[in-house]
Amino acid sequence: MKALVTGGGGFLGGAIVRLLRERGETVRSFSRQEYPALARIGVEQLQGDIEDQDAVLHAAEGCDTVFHVAAKAGIWGSAAEFHLANVTGTENVIAACRHHGIPRLVFTGSPSVVFDGSDVEGGNESLPYPAQYEADYPRTKALAERLVIAANGPDLATVSLRPHLIWGPGDNHLVPRIIAKGRAGKLRRIGSRDCLVDTVYVDNAAAAHLLAADRLAPGAAIAGNCYFITNGEPLPLGEMINRILAAADLPPVSGSVPSSVAYAAGLLCEGFWSLFSLLGEPPMTRFVAREMATAHWFDISAARRDLGYVPAVSINEGLIRLRAWLAGEKA
Q1: What are phi and psi of 74, to 5 degrees?
Q2: β-strands 166-167, 235-236 pairing
Q3: Spatial contact of 257 and 189, defined as CB atoms under 8 Å apart
């Protein structure tokens, strides 16, 4: 395999690159900057923007597999920027695959593309896309996923993986956000229910991508499909947050906010941030309020059956590794 990993310097992309190199694959990373950690393990690095078609064409040349991980994530930001990174960027990756005759494209999707504001309990891949979204990230990721699945055909095999709430050592999004808010005393439970939520340890999410690539080919059983990827260990959201806080030696969350109040606060914050063009993310949005007040756990039997996916690192083991990493960061 000669693989291109877009976003290879990121959290998940970096884990995919590492696993590929551990088994001796040739890997090229395409990111906005150069990463010394990738250079140390023999990864070729090209710099550029995913929305730059020429740069993506150049990055994909000579590869036989593409892992398209790069995306603009987050709960707030410019709709145009989300579209450029997530939709235009995906269009460019598909075009590059076709231009160079690359037969395999593994896309990193998101379970948020099927979130309609209500509970998801044991949801599987038959869940439909909702008619509307309350945030640009899931909206543009849904558009991108549709493009990837529509591109599947006799010359290009595509598959979309939907890892849910990736965490672990090296996390630059979920864990730091929880810890920062925990230290500031700004974490509250939303709603009266402690709903079950799935997460996935980063190495498990990365391993699922390699399993998909190994089974992917034009006409293969997994081609044109989407798969939810989790640890298969749903926990109450409050418990999972408290266990991450405990790994950082922080106290558990205390206090809660009614879900209706959180949603109203999110609506007001969004309006205020938009009206005055404020920098940074608002403290609450409608999307976050609904996410934190509803259940999100998924049936991963399709990934187990079709990909041979088995979550090798349990939540307990992952938290031990996270604690060790956090202790090293403080040292």
Answers
A1: 125, 165
A2: unpaired
A3: yes
Residue 113 contacts residue 296 (beta carbons within 8 Å): no
How far is Cα 17 from Cα 32, in angstroms, rounded to an integer?
A: 16
**Strand-pair partners of 296:** 120, 197
Annotated active-site residue 137? The verdict is yes
Q: What is the pLDDT of residue 330?
A: 61
196 SS3 class: strand
Phi-psi group of 219: left, alpha or beta (phi > 0 → left; psi -120 to 50 → alpha; rest → beta) = left
User: What is the value of pTM for the model shown?
Assistant: 0.95
- pLDDT tens digits for 100-130? 999 999 999 999 999 999 999 999 999 999 9
Give Cα 102 to chain centroid, integer Å. 24
User: What kind of fold does domain 2-249+287-330 have according to CATH?
Assistant: Rossmann fold (3.40.50)
Residue 50 amino acid letter: I
- How far is residue 105 from each of residues 127, 211, 245, 310, measured CA to CA in Å? 23, 13, 37, 21
**Given 35, 129, 137, 227, the catalytic residue:** 137
* Residue range 279-323, pLDDT digits in tens: 888 888 888 888 889 999 999 999 999 999 999 999 999 999 999
Element (H, E) at 2: strand 2-6
- Amino acid (1-letter code) at residue 136: D
